[in-house]
Amino acid sequence: MPKTAAKEARASARDVILDAAERVVEREGAGRLTIDAVVRESGFSKGGVLYNFPSKLDLIKGMVARIVDAVHCDVELARKDAREQGQSELSALIRTACEKEPHSQKFMMGLMAAAAEHPELLDPVRGLLTQMRVDLLASAADPDLARVVFLAVDGLHFADMLGLDFLTPEERARVEARLVDLISEPKS
User: Fold this and answer.
1) A Pfam family for this UniProt protein (predicted)?
2) What per-residue confidence (pLDDT) applies to 16?
């Protein structure tokens, strides 16, 4: 098998295994995430799972890395589209963050539970968010307002993750639109 095909097959196997792990965490919680559970869910042999993820911790790291990669791709695409359309990268990012369908509550809570045992698992998330904010705040007309908007978007995401439905869908849409408007307003 050519190197490229082998690399693609391995990436594909990793994705299948990570998909299976996400289903286990969503259905049963992070505490029940085991290599054996992923073997059953994925259809791979135990050796196949262990070849790709030698431990449960490596599996969780892979899950976090995949989320970070997806967010990074979404952010870069939003920034590129904004530049090409002559729009504010900051407002495009806020719009993307608001529109992006998050992972399920149960899955995210499971990852948070795993991160409570191993706080270093969140280092890639912290790194991505820190870099993203540094880059975007540098171009913000009002950096303090941009921070407030970022915190509000984070609050919406945490409310989703915790199942705190304190806004109707219509109210949420209005809040999200207002956040984009706020970040688009010139500094006074």
Assistant:
1) TetR_N
2) 96
**pTM over 0.90, yes/no:** no
The angle formed by the CA atoms of residues 14, 15 and 17, to the nearest 5 degrees, is 65
**Looking up tokens 């790194």, which residue turns up?**
127
- Predicted confidence at residue 141, as pLDDT, reads 87
Q: Where in the chain are the domains?
A: 1-54, 65-188
CATH dotted code for 1-54:
1.10.10
Q: Report how far apart the first and last C-alpha atoms of the chain are (Å, whole number).
A: 62
- Angle of helix 169-184 relative to helix 89-99, nearest 10 degrees, comes to 170
Distance in angstroms (rounded) separating the CA atoms of residues 19 and 70 = 14
d(C-alpha 13, C-alpha 164), whole Å: 35
